[in-house]
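cache lookup: miss for this entity combination. No prior model stored, computing from scratch. Input as submitted by user K.M.:
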Amino acid sequence: MHVVVPFAANTPKTRLSDVVSPTERTTLARAMLADVLSAVASTGHVPTVLSTAPLALENVFSCDNLPTTPPELESPREIPVTVDDRPLTAAVNAYLEAATGPVAIVMADLALATPAALSMLFDAGAADGVAIAPGRGGGTNALVVRHPDFRVDYHGSSYVDHREHAAEIGAPLESVDSFRLGTDVDEPADLVEVLIHGGRDGTQSRTATQLRELGFELETTDGRVTVVRTES
Amino acid sequence: MHVVVPFAANTPKTRLSDVVSPTERTTLARAMLADVLSAVASTGHVPTVLSTAPLALENVFSCDNLPTTPPELESPREIPVTVDDRPLTAAVNAYLEAATGPVAIVMADLALATPAALSMLFDAGAADGVAIAPGRGGGTNALVVRHPDFRVDYHGSSYVDHREHAAEIGAPLESVDSFRLGTDVDEPADLVEVLIHGGRDGTQSRTATQLRELGFELETTDGRVTVVRTES
């Protein structure tokens, strides 16, 4: 199976602007990408990064106190980077059109992704179907495409649109039930999930490590959990 | 296994106040409870409702166009209701103290719960351990307690607290990875999830049906999905 991880190299995580600087957003986006690539590599697949700009993966994997190479790989250089500066939907569809065989598309901000959750996704879906791990708000956080005519459209409620599209082309659709794959890190509230669940399954979470180095920690106020930043 | 579904009969879903009236909140809370009880019954377990006040389950299961009795049961009367007007934590701990054998505690607002997701939870965890399906923000949406000394504390980041408590008493903890069990319906934004995913697996969703009868539907604006209410 081809496993593609799209990455917006130039405009990372703008919805985190209120709590982290542009440079820090780049750091966090790269830490998340490294975590996702490591989790994919641990399932036995070599991912392909579909990046909007050239990207040196050695830099992506450089993070204090953590391995600079994902498990199962000799070097980050083993991971191919395909540059396509078109918007996400167009770039992914070009990949789907060119591909022979099943393709999995895994968003680069699924910082809680584990090998177990990804393996469940990769094994899901009928031989001519589509399997989707939805995110909150109808997002398509990760999917496996085995039907040759299926194309993505990430705008709006993409999960609902993808479900309708699959029905139109006669592709059986399976929904993959995963809290970890359902959690994409877009907004400050999502950082709570990284600090609670990141690196809790025996793997190391570069994203959680970076967040803690940036001074983020959990705070409970009035029975609700948020993140606070104690230093910068 | 004992499966307990705590239910706040008198103060349902106050965080939905901005979008639904008190009467409608009661209707929605009961629809969610009925969906959860049906899903539990479909796993082969007879749930117990742990209610803060007396409750007639016939009324809970009365919903236009939907079966008034959950599958696997002859009548809602088969489901026992235990009344305990203490706060959630105290009531659940009293149940745990009195129980012999494993106990599952499933929140009544897990409107997306399916038999498959609940079966995964019920099968999880070590023989002397605890299994938790976390919700967003560190909540404990559902858990299975097999260690006799484990007690709950639902205040604050209960998932983190429960993880620490399990470690303290030497109970192995397993986290159950489920988007469906991870989605509790507390706030208006959560209604999006019910309208997208409710009743999509061959079962009927009383909650989604009620929401649609109350005039709620999905709306996509600026690429984000929300609910709007078109009639009342």
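stored under new cache key. Chain A has one domain: 2-185.
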